[in-house]
Amino acid sequence: MWGRKNRDSRKKAKAALTQHMRDMNAYLHEKNISGKAVTLGAAVLVLAGLLGVRYRSEGSLLPTSAAAGGKELPIYCVQTEEPKIALTFDAAWGNEDTKQIMEILKKHDVKVTFFMTGGWVESYPDDVKMILAEGHDLGNHSQNHKNMSQLSDSEKESELMTVHNKVKELTGYDMFLFRPPYGDYDSAVIKVAKKCGYYAIQWDVDSLDWKDYGVDSIIKTVTEHKHLGNGSIILCHNGAKYTAQALDTMITTLKDKGYTFVPLSELIIRDNYQMNHEGRQIPNS
Questions:
Q1: Which superfamily is assigned to 77-283 in CATH?
Q2: Which of 27, 120, 147, 241 is least surrounded by CB atoms within 10 angstroms?
Q3: pLDDT > 90: what percent of the chain?
């Protein structure tokens, strides 16, 4: 048994180092650094990995620095000893199920985070105000739901700040959580978000509710997800066909597993943290 665990650890370390090498190579090529420098950079990275990479008790890789291969990363999850998780909803289209979702959340006393596009804010201003009044986070999902990595920096900033200002004018609330549409990002997207005062947020548990597989599928996908754990961020969608129907059982099941729901504003680490290669936010010791 010990031998198998040892082999698994070596496999994980090897896979992680390989990924770091790929990230470093891509970064150096992007900066037009010579082939020799690329090779040297990879060799240095391997040495650093051999000397500095280690595992936490949960088996997740700790980084040897705050950067992951020179790439900026959004927050996929948060390292915490407490069984806290965050439930999030992307709101970009309809609002037919908003009332039902809100009633279920209130029933379970669960606070969540809604990431809203500018179009959704314009179409459903009363819902935006209701969500905030019920104690939930308001998050930015861009103005037009475009692939952010394909936009210029000025266009990225406009996508963020247009909806930011709309929500500020409507509610007086300054949003600071941003989820890129489609989960599409690059280093520039993260940097522009930071410039605008935003933490970029992804997820490590995808409900796949947008695929319309059914109520049972959503519940099982979330509650039995291989990445589900302390500090997980769960992705759901407002306006998906079966999400509202699955929500009650999903919340009950996760609570029975010992998890406590908190909004992202309470889960993320605001400062003095680093990111590992998988987008896990780790507090500085």
A1: Glycoside hydrolase/deacetylase (3.20.20.370)
A2: 147
A3: 74
